[in-house]
Design a protein that fits this description.
Elements (H helix, E strand, L loop, with lengths): L1 E7 L3 H13 L4 E4 L2 H10 L1 E7 L2 E2 L2 E2 H11 L4 E5 L4 H9 L4 E4 L4 H28 L9 E5 L2 E4 L4 E4 L2 E3 L3 H12 L5 E2 H9 L6 H15 L9 E4 L3 E4 L7
Parallel strand pairs: 1-2, 1-3, 3-6, 6-7
Antiparallel strand pairs: 4-5, 8-9, 9-10, 10-11, 12-14, 13-14
């Protein structure tokens, strides 16, 4: 089932009030109260945006954010009564996209959520149109630069950091190669699943896990990727990769 928003908060009153308010304004929203419930929900449903509290009883929203970032791709807005600079910076560093302090106005929170959803829905539609209209990609050269001292050797089917091979699994290589073939435009998740995986039973969670593993091998900071960038709700993009030979 598709949801636009999932709230993860162990305060039942706040979670119920927020969920009910959002649903009144046609933002399909659900809530859960624990890390386990959140991960189970995400495995079984498609969610566009998360509202995540830091304190979840004896559990930590920080830890949950790290785990979600390994397995899924969607915007995460932290919501917490903790308002120190350290808390905010920590939340943003581990993968949060925004930080909202409690108590909050439901109308203002709704406006923020609507703006984010509209932005991502617009980007998703633009990416789908661009993908449909994109010309046939040209074959990659034998060796293409990804970043400084980072190359893909298409002839040898390997990734090189300088002259040192970086081990890639077969699917990681195929995904990186496909992104480079279509560099400069967003490769949608559906396109990945259809053209790279060619498996109707693979889900977005599996795709996100493989992107995470690929980033671990090519990015300086996997939580702040600069090579493979996420377009939330749409897919992934590699921009201009420099000269190739």
């Amino acid at each position: 089932m598709k949801y636009q928003c999932l709230m993860i908060d162990d305060d039942s009153t706040i979670a119920e009030n927020t969920t009910e308010y959002f649903n009144l304004f046609d933002i399909r929203t659900a809530y859960v109260k624990s890390c386990t419930e959140a991960l189970d929900f995400l495995e079984q449903n498609e969610v566009s945006l998360l509202l995540l509290d830091i304190n979840l009883g004896e559990e930590s929203g920080y830890d949950l954010c790290r785990e979600i970032r390994k397995r899924f791709d969607m915007p995460i807005l932290f919501i917490s009564a903790r308002n120190s600079d350290d808390d905010i910076l920590a939340a943003l560093h581990i993968g949060g996209d925004d930080y909202i302090t409690k108590p909050f106005s439901l109308s203002i929170l709704l406006a923020k959520v609507k703006a984010i959803l509209k932005r991502y829905e617009t980007a998703a539609e633009a990416a789908r149109l661009a993908s449909a209209a994109a010309p046939q990609s040209e074959p990659l050269p034998q060796r293409i630069q990804i970043a400084e001292q980072l190359w893909l050797d298409a002839a040898q089917h390997q990734l090189l950091r300088g002259d040192t091979p970086v081990p890639l699994k077969a699917m990681e290589y195929k995904m990186l190669h496909y992104l480079l073939e279509h560099r400069g435009r967003v490769v949608t998740k559906d396109e990945f699943l259809q053209n790279v995986w060619q498996d109707a039973f693979v889900g977005e969670g599996t795709l996100a896990v493989h992107i995470r593993h690929l980033r671990e091998k090519i990015e300086q900071d996997v939580n702040a990727p600069v090579i493979i960038k996420t377009v939330w709700g749409v897919g992934y993009i590699i921009g201009d990769t420099g000269e190739s030979n």
